[in-house]
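Forwarding these from the shared drive since the link keeps breaking.
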Amino acid sequence: MLIKTSGLVIRTLKYGETSIIFDLFTREVGTCSFIVGGVRKTGSKTPASLFQLMNWIDVVAYYKSSTSLNRIKECKSHLHYLDLPFSLQKRGVGMFMTEVIQKTFNESEANEDLYSFLWDTYRFLDETPKSTGNIHIIFLLRLSQFLGFYPHGRYSADTPHFNLYTGTYEEVPHPVYSLDPQISQLLSECLNHNIEESHKVTLNRSQRKDLIRDLLTFYKLHLDRLPEIQTHKILSDVLDG
């Protein structure tokens, strides 16, 4: 059937001499793979740059749920970024978020709430004049709601240890899975803010690195066979620069 949809480009591969295969997280059918031919030819009406990671595009495609690759009939840009492509820090944050989405969501079914969350997050990242150094941390926490393992409870004098395995704040620390009270308290502070308020959380470089490391461990404990997330290592250098 012919579908019209919009989505976020989360993976791109060169195919043959002139074609591109890309994965799109779409509004209507979830994650879907497409092939588009001829876009790497000189003078192509549709530029290959349209399918770069993090781009939001509109497509008209021949779609079959049983087909691994669907063919594009028409496509165009859905969102024109103003600042993200030109800011090293914003681009690093966006690449990290995109890799996380690519490796955690593969469902070929619609998720309107997740789509709206991603749309709002990337637009905010592009447009905000405030610090973006904590956006990826709040993003991981908010995304875990859609994945089904959002942290429960908050830091207190009675429950100062966050257990990565149970996803709860506890009185007695676990010898393996509990975070120390300082990081547990910072995590609780992050839970109290949405992405638009991420600049209000005060973290130094060491604390930011520790939180990312611990949240990625949190993800690995709750998602079977989660591939290694790579871009956070580059992002750490970008944010420290």
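-- next protein --
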Amino acid sequence: MKVTVCELSNERDALENQWSALVDHCRREHSEMLLLPEMPFTPWLAGRYDPNQAAWMSAVAEHESWRGMLVELAPATVVSTQPVVDGDSNHNEGFLWSAAAGYQPAHRKYYLPNEDGFWEANWYQPGPKEFVPAELADLQIGFLICTEMWFTEHARSYARAGVELVAAPRATGMSSTEKWIAGGRAAAVMSGAFCLSSNRSGVGAAGFEWGGHGWIIEPEEGAILGLTSAQQPFLTIDIDLEVARHAKQTYPRYVAE
């Protein structure tokens, strides 16, 4: 299966310039799945301490508008998150999109940080504490949205459920890149699944430097198959899903709890 990860600019003008290049890359590489960063289509809202519902609603509308552009990536399935409103609550919702099935909600982010630059618990509410694999044909995908990756019991539960891919869309800074890569390797080993992550890049509010470094990590030993960079913001690798299925039978995945 050909899977693509990326790093996309936090700035809208730069993102618009990147988009056609990403579409061309996916077509040229015959990508079957593309993972986008966390809430990729607007500048990062949670950098501000005080939530603004008008800004949140604008981000919802912007993501829904960009969703119409996803058809340019067909036949690839697109995986990401977007801001949503459900009744009186805001959420960060993981989804799958395909030309055939359209938008399919899959998971709402549960673990929300609240610190300088990442005031997420101020801006939106946690979803239910449910980590249920999303199904795509005969493929099972587990979501670990950014901070969720550090709650490793869910990677272990995904191993028991037989997932082949763990999708980890992120919004993380450059200064913590090595820590996040280590977490991605642990998630791959614990789940026995290929771990894919895409991230924001560029400079945000107050000069904050986004980390980039999307990755594809294999499930048996946690080896990094590839990383994106400013020079190579898109990465496609042909992965063998049987490797993930076999990994469930090997150490440490087989050890009984």
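Residues 2-247 form a domain with the Nitrilase/N-carbamoyl-D-aminoacid amidohydrolase fold (CATH 3.60.110.10). The chain has one domain: 2-247.

- D.
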